[in-house]
Amino acid sequence: MSTLHASPHAVSPERGVLERLHAWAITVDHKKLGVMYIVAGLVFFVVAGLEATAMRLQLIKPLNDLLTPQGFNQMFTMHGTTMVFLVGMPILLGVGNYLVPLMIGARDMAFPRLNAFGFWLFIFGALLLYFSWIAGDGLYGAGGAPDVGWFAYSPLTSRTFSRGNSTDYWILGIMVSGFGSMTTAINFMATILCMRCPGMTLMRMPLLVWMMLVVAVLVLTAIPVLTAAQVMLLLDRTLGAHFFDPQQQGSTVLWQHLFWFFGHPEVYILILPPFGFISEIVPVFSRKVIFGYALMVAATVGIGFISLGVWAHHMFVVGLPPWLNALFAASTFLISVPTGIKIFNWLGTMWGGRIRFASPMLFASGFLGMFLIGGLTGIMLAVVPFTHQLSDSYFVVGHFHYVLFGGTVFAIFGAIAFWFPKVTGRMMSERLNAWSFWILLIGFNLVFLPMHFSGMLGMPRRIYTYQPGRGFELWNLISTIGVPVQIVGVGLFVCSMVRALVKGPVAGNDPWDAWTLEWATTSPPPEHNFDRIPVCTSARPLWDRKNPQDPDCNYE
Amino acid sequence: MEAVLHNPETWRPGRGKVGMASLIAMESFFFAGFIVAYLFYIGKSAVGPYPREVLELKPVLWNSAALISSSFTVIAAVRGLARGRMGAMRVWLLATILLGGWFLWGTWLEWRTLIWDRGLTIRTNLFGTTFYSLVGFHAFHVTVGLLALALFWVLALLGRLKPARDTLRFELVSWYWHFVDVVWIFVFTSVYIVGMRA
């Protein structure tokens, strides 16, 4: 029994490596699970980056033969699948896992063991997907890694066109990690609704917590539909069912509807948590309360609802009836309104503030600019005739990388820079971070800005090479030149993390002078988070504690 | 501090209830995918047999009656546990399990006829594909629910259930059981009413 009651503070540093690994493997602590999610996500970020590098090298000049056509198909399939399911979702759910209980003043998630179960499902699904490199050949001697694109359109995924088992690995890997995401979403729902500390009303929750609540709802509505579609595909492939088999009147368009009913909310699953990061970072480094808190909450919930009704804008060239296209174009315009509200609220927060461009704020500002560009090209693509011209071109690739790299990844880097001191107790190097930010910003624009031009000139996405003399050469060359710049930027950030772990200055509880509850405990927090469950008096509980002469609760 | 702790604004819903409600919401969307596929493919099979030729409404009505009554018996079982009347709880729970078992047995009889006598399998046509996957996934969920109910029945027989501690847990399982029932109403409507015309 004595081991059960051992204090977490009594952990002796001279424990063996195996013992420490074992402690991580059996943990149900939301903080350790969050860190494991983030580290696993960053590892897959490097893997997906290498896959992207291989594609860019292949496209550096016309008629290059670095990759075979099939190898190129495998690269873009694995890059997309990995970035969405093994980088974006685990890192965002991981940061949420780490921060949500701390921010609402709870000791852990509502279901700690379910939380660990979800994490290990994610790892298992990820390994299953990557196992396809070895075992995807199946009995046919054809295949390898999946090569059907990350949205796996039928009938390309049927037994006839996708021999071997690579597509089955794609289905099972994503399905299993999807189960993990769904259990995590259930956990977020129960944690956020039931575990808030006294005084933490819904309208006092940090905006990140609000975003995670809406993300949980989206995970619970979107992912099961993907699972259903994948089960159908699996039945087609293994039992000879005909869901997506045109020869038996099965509809390939049904797959697209089911996939994008998942796929578009998924985009918001990947961007709402970054909105949360920005909403936490911008006020602290502008030294102002967030502008329009209630409006931000309303915009988030609005985005959640509307995102369930925009999916067919991915299908404008399928040949749906014109009235349906018009409807989905309208809903897509509509969703840009709450998104625009958010951008104006962040700008309103910065307006007149005492802005300090520490590295989290640099990344947040980069997010604002880059995400805005991605959002604007998104509105362009909501125009049906415009998409008729540019669907499946590099313009689309450029657009969604501005949203998901310039948006999500920049916000993730900002979040890491912001909360690293809380998680590890050490400060990252501001100098290294700033260098990393500027180099990454330049590299990012070098890679992705030219894609808009090559796309408008007519270069389709997902081609393994192109003919000379069509005006694509220069833009592709610039894109590829940007890759090493980005690698340097990411590398500097990794160096900064490692350096901070080894010899970073001690951070203290609250290095940024912030106002939410995670900064009220030690860095790193003890296993039980808070010695005494905090009491929340306003939307900025820590401000109230620091400024008892003028607390926020006077103005609520 | 006391004021904060006894303030109605610090009331929180139970995490078990929120968790189970979230699970049920998630499962609903899973079934929605299959129901949409079923409705979408009504009347689109390239070859027979077609629903109106092979499906029989009468036995399914009996099955449905059994499953829907089991929702009422499980309510009685929960009430029995809540009031500490363990005998009543065991009887009503057993009735629930038997009614659920009846439903599964009925499904098996229906499938046996369809597969061996009428030659409808999951690979025959779109009707077979969508029928077996939708009804099959529902039957799978009934099975999972039955296992959970059976676990409680065994615990009740062993005298291991404590009303104060376990009523909520049992109630949450009963929520799942109701959900399985409600899904069946949608499946029944899609397959045996809307889809019968094809």
Could you list some keywords that capture this structure?
heterodimer; A: 556 residues; mainly alpha; globular; B: 198 residues; Four Helix Bundle (Hemerythrin (Met), subunit A); 79% helix
Q: How many DSSP helices of chain B?
A: 7
Report Rg of chain B.
Answer: 20 Å
SSE order of chain A, as H and E? HHHHHHHHHHHHHHH
Biggest protein-protein contact in the assembly: A-B, 42 and 41 residues
Structure description:
- The complex is a heterodimer of chains A (556) and B (198).
- Chain A is an all-alpha fold.
- Chain A has a domain at 354-512.
- In chain A, 65% of the residues lie in helices and 0% in strands.
- Chain A has 15 helices and no strands.
- In chain A, α3 runs parallel beside α5, α4 (112-135) packs antiparallel against α5 and α7 (252-286) packs antiparallel against α8.
- The longest helix of chain A is centred in the N-terminal third of the chain and has 35 residues, at 69-103.
- Chain A starts with 16 loop residues before the first helix and ends in a 10-residue tail after the last helix.
- Chain B has one domain (23-33, 56-197): Four Helix Bundle (Hemerythrin (Met), subunit A).
- Chain B has helices at residues 2-5, 15-40, 51-54, 57-82, 86-117, 126-157, 163-194.
- Chain B has 198 residues and is mainly α.
- The longest helix of chain B is centred in the middle third of the chain and has 32 residues, at 86-117.
- Chain A binds chain B through residues 110-111, 182, 185-187, 189-191, 193-196, 198-199, 201, 216, 220-225, 227-229, 231-232, 235, 239-243, 247-251, 254, 258, 535, and chain B through 1, 4-5, 7, 9-10, 12-16, 18-19, 22-23, 25-27, 29-34, 36-37, 40-41, 44-47, 122-123, 125-126, 128-130, 133, 137.
